[in-house]
Each structure stands twice: as structure tokens, then as C-alpha cells.
Amino acid sequence: MITAEAAGGAALAALRAEVGEVVAAQVAARLLALTGPVPLEEKLSWAAKEEAARQVLGGPDPAADPKAAALLVAEAEQTGEEIAALAHRILDKAAAYRQALSQLTGWRRGMMQRIEAARSLHELQLVREAVPETVPG
């Protein structure tokens, strides 16, 4: 036999999971709006491209990896951009992405803390209603 307390606990857990999914969906939507539909494989190259951009703009460095700068050369050949302009664009976008990601990460963690702290269905519903109003971006 399921007690009312157990049923209430199950409902609370289910709503917690649902609100957590709403939070995750908001983060995913904001990141998609920020980056556009970029394939994962391309995103995985961003750190290497950022390092290559720093090398290109920093001038000749005996420790610099010539293969890193080749990443920018290959892209610039396809887009027709000057390599220095591409390097500046990469660094500007990287800084903006990190800033937005930091805000979203902090927001997500704060929301998850609020979700875990909620002790009733009503409190959780209030958290859920606050999601679209509080997400940064």
C-alpha cells in the first residue's frame, strides 16, 4: 500500500526532475542562440583555434606550434578573411562565449540549489515559474 507521504514524496521528486529539465532546456536554448547550430566537432576545435589566434597575434614565438597556426590558415583560405582579422574574431567570440557560459553556469547552479531546497510542490512550482524570467541572456 502506498502511503500519502510516499505519494507526496514521489510527486515532489517528479516535479523536481521536471523543473531540472526546464532549467537544462533554457541553458541549451541560450547556448544555441549564442553559438548558432555549430556541430560538436567544430566546438571541440575552439580551444585549439583560440590558442592559434593568440600565437598569430602574439608574433613569432620559438615555442609556438606551427600546426596550431595552420588551423587559422586553413579556415581563412576558405572564408577569404585575413588571418589577423580571423584571429581577432576568434578571440572576441571566445571571450563573449566564456562570459555568457559563466553567467549561465551560475544561473543553472543557483536554480538547481533552489530546486533542491524546495520542500513542497507549491515551492517547486514557484521555482518553475521563475525560470524564464530569471535566465540570463
Average pLDDT reading: 89
Shape: elongated
**Low-confidence region ranges:** none
Provide a count of the helices.
6
Q: Could you tell me the strand content as a percent range? A: under 5%
> How much helix is in the residues?
over 70%
Give the C-alpha Rg: 22 Å
Question: Which terms summarize this structure?
Answer:
mainly alpha, 137 residues, 6 helices
Brief summary:
The protein is mainly α and about 140 residues long. Helices cover about 80% and strands about 0% of the residues.
Task: Explain what the structure shows.
By secondary structure, this protein is mainly alpha-helical. The chain contains six helices and no strands. The longest helix is centred in the last third of the chain and has 35 residues, at 83-117. The chain is elongated.
Tell me the layout of helices and strands:
Elements: H1 4-35, H2 40-43, H3 46-58, H4 66-79, H5 83-117, H6 121-134
